[in-house]
Amino acid sequence: MRKVAEVIVDVPTMQTDLPYTYLIPDELEDKILPGMRVIVPFGKGNRKIQGFVTAINEILPTEDLTALKQIEAPMDLVPVLSKELLEMAEEMRRTTLAFKITCFQTMLPNVMKASYDKKLVVRSDCPQEIMDTVFDGLAEMTWEDAQTSGKLPTIMKLRQENLVDVVYLVNKKNRVKTIKGFQSLLTSQELMAVKDSLKPNAKQQHLLIDVLLLLDGSMISNKEAQELYDISTAVIKTGQTKGWLNIIEQEVKRDPYANHTFKQTFAATLNSEQQLAYEAITHAVREQKSETFLLEGITGSGKTEVYLQVIADVLKENKTGIVLVPEISLTPQTVRRFKERFGSEVAVLHSALSVGEKYDEWRKIEHGDAKVVVGARSAIFAPLDNLGVIIIDEEHESTYKQEENPRYHARDLAIWRANYHQCPVVLGSATPSLETRARAQKKVYHMLQLTERATQASRLPKTEIINMTEAETFGKMQTFSRHLLEKIQLRLHKKEQVVLMLNRRGYSSFVMCRDCGFVVPCPNCDISLTLHMDSHSMKCHYCGHEEPIPNKCPDCQSNKIRYYGTGTQKVEEELTQLFPKARILRMDVDTTRKKGAHERLLEQFGQHEADILLGTQMIAKGLDFPNVTLVGVLNADTALNLPDFRASERTFQLLTQVSGRAGRGDKAGEVVIQTFNPDHYAIQLAKRHDYEQFFRYEMSVRHEANYPPYYFTAQIIASHPEENVVAKKMYDILLGLKEQLSAQAIILGPTPKAVMRVNNRYFYQIVIKYKAEPHLYEYLRSILENNQTEISKGLKLSVDTEPLNFV
Ligand code: ADP
Ligand code: ZN
Ligand code: ZN
């Protein structure tokens, strides 16, 4: 009985988005498994491409084998995607309409997608005999050698027994990371004898012998020896020449947190609300119930402490857990708290890691060395078995939705995985998304509430709203109301700290001619260029076009060109003039571009090396600094005017979150919100920290306008270099939709996008609002399928089945 494999090939097109059948070569029978990647011949020219095996089938001896192509070679020793992840990819394909191959690729660390060289290494418990016979006495072999010598099938078997491993060679610098250390060559008796023979003033050598005695034969790294015992490299060298010790170089897995020291923390005694939440969740863990909990708790109410204790319980049950955070670089303090509590059992996955670092973390998880994964959106694909809980912190954040194919939402996949593993999901937030809160209302999710701040002394800050249309400002500096300036002054005087936020959403600085009103546009897009002081240039945020700042008006030649809008840099300059002695830290895309810059800035601020932290919305998240007693929001409402039905919700969330940075210690906090819309409900209710009232009000607004969570939405976007082509196509699609959808569905459009022309392409959209359309996804897929010819001729068509952004 011959076996065949079903393979999804790496050709991301509609026509090839289905499994192809390949014969498995004899020597690889029983070795090729679902979830492995293989090289297969494809197409007329039998081009060699990669693919993922999704299933193995047997074929009858009577079947004709000659028509079947054969798998060329395996690319993995063991499956890189589990049965679970293979099934989840099918769910992703169905709900996001992305190609299957794209879903698979998304689940793996980047290093495994590109064609990096790889080698095979033996693991420490591999018997010498195997090293001798298979590896010619060495500890490693290149992948090519294994393949050409025909040893790959044997090695695949060894990998199944966990005796060998695959290592991707990312680049020369990153290849292997080693630490230098040393180890005694002498017995303790011999060491004692040496010590007796040393001159009393050879202090360093005495110390070295003492340390060697202490180590009792085990190895210590040079760095540790230096830090713990003050042993210099020079004396280690001496020790080597005198034959006391052996210098060793050992390969280490890169640990991105290696340079951090984490002091172990312990569980706090939970307050009664926390205890209730903890008990409900851990009950579901033990009973293996795939329930979804909404943990709605005000900022500082101790949600993270609940997560930590739930995870401790999950580990006690011998299970594993995933914790998603919006963006690791913005939430270093949260990650730190998991590291402090669980040490090396935590793997951290996020975009700022190098490819090599990410692969190492992934391997740690895959080998079962890490049982808790903390990471951003894509950590939902962590190859953990035996999940006991999935936690999504700040569940309302839009970063959980991927804005490119496959457009998945991590929350949906979390619920899918939890169902697979029969474990609970915890969605935590001070300001849950309306969709989530509405589901809790309907008891689809189980609601848990934390209504008070966790530490006795800390209280929610007092908030004031300043109406900027009539506020008194200071001379020419329009950014600050006098009131806010006085409050800053007072904090500086009291040696307390201030956080100032400049909201960049829906807001940018531009250049305008005072004489004729000309604003410099992008030549490729229907939008004005944004001023960038750091590079002294004008940039288009849509297509990346860049040009120098004009010194004359390109239209009327006047030289009265002026800058409008305020960037963080300009605010920083104003602050320096107003408070010459204040130490100011600026945190925005320009000052945080370098790896680790975020963390360094926050650390500086935490150690009170600065008085004022000025930043964009990136400072709103997760900061917990007890000495911050004033938070100022310079422009609360710039995002309110965006043509997106979620504008109020986002504004409310942001204001609540940034307000939560004040008064976390025992000193009372204050918040000042400057706005041009002082009466807007999102601003008024944020002032009162009243999420529940906001939820009720916003629900009535959504109900009135037939928006989520009362309706589901789907969005079709098409673009083409010629406007009439795309407009005509969208009207065709509209006709088809009208025929297909029920009378309940509402179709908006087609309309040009808010910025119609981007990069010389014209963009149109259709938005569908619906309650229940069981065949909608299939129909949307058929639209993509039926337009393949136009797509090959320059039409771009994309579908977002639950869009989060409408601008
Ligand atoms: P959230 O995640 O809701 O913002 P945190 O878990 O960060 O809240 O808690 C806020 C502060 O209160 C932290 O400094 C935390 O260590 C502390 N804390 C949380 N729970 C307790 C508790 N039960 N007893 C004492 N301190 C607590
Ligand atoms: Zn002009
Ligand atoms: Zn542009």
From TrEMBL:
One of its GO terms (cellular component) is primosome complex. Residues 284-450 form the Helicase ATP-binding domain. InterPro entries: Helicase/UvrB_N, Helicase_ATP-bd, Helicase_C-like, P-loop_NTPase, PriA, PriA_3primeBD, PriA_3primeBD_sf, PriA_C. Its cofactor is Zn(2+). GO terms for molecular function: 3'-5' DNA helicase activity; ATP binding; DNA binding; hydrolase activity; zinc ion binding. Binds 2 zinc ions per subunit. Residues 548-702 form the Helicase C-terminal domain. Zn(2+) 1 binds at C513, C516, C553, C556. It is an enzyme of class 5 (isomerase). It catalyses: ATP + H2O = ADP + phosphate + H(+); Couples ATP hydrolysis with the unwinding of duplex DNA by translocating in the 3'-5' direction. Zn(2+) 2 binds at C522, C525, C540, C543. It comes from the Bacteria. Component of the replication restart primosome. This is Replication restart protein PriA. It comes from Vagococcus xieshaowenii.
